[in-house]
Design a protein that fits this description.
The structure is a single chain. This protein is mostly helical. The protein contains 5 helices and 2 strands, in the order H-E-E-H-H-H-H. The protein folds into 2 domains: about 45 residues, no CATH class; about 55 residues, no CATH class. The protein starts with 5 loop residues before the first helix and ends in an 11-residue tail after the last helix.
């Protein structure tokens, strides 16, 4: 590994994998112990291997799309808590209506995209 990449490698290891740190009082050279640190973002958060193998979502685009749509629905950057509650109730009612319509067969589910 190039020397210039050492800092980046160590950052990645600490942040996403977990690094090993030497522990102890440092007085004895005969027994060196290491303890693995907990990463800020463990592999369970960012690893998409299982999702890929099971043809699942590998991104949070679905959430981002909803956030964008809800933000446009709010039509306000910093709404009051009351405005937020009203809009969330409307969103919930709309979702419940869509579920009921799908159960009755009056609207069809959106087609799944081919990945």
């Amino acid at each position: 590994m190039p020397k210039e990449a050492t800092d980046l490698f160590e950052y990645f290891e600490r942040t996403y994998i977990g690094a090993y740190n030497r522990v102890g009082n440092g007085q004895s050279d005969t027994s060196i112990k290491f303890r693995k640190t907990t990463p800020n973002f463990p592999p369970s958060v960012w690893n998409v291997r299982d999702a890929t193998l099971n043809h699942g979502d590998r991104t949070n685009n679905v959430c981002e799309g909803w956030n964008n749509r809800f933000s446009n629905l709010m039509n306000h950057k910093h709404p009051t808590i009351w405005r937020l509650i009203i809009k969330m109730r409307h969103e919930n009612a709309a979702d419940e209506t869509k579920v009921a319509q799908r159960q009755l067969g009056t609207i069809r589910r959106p087609p799944k995209s081919n990945r």
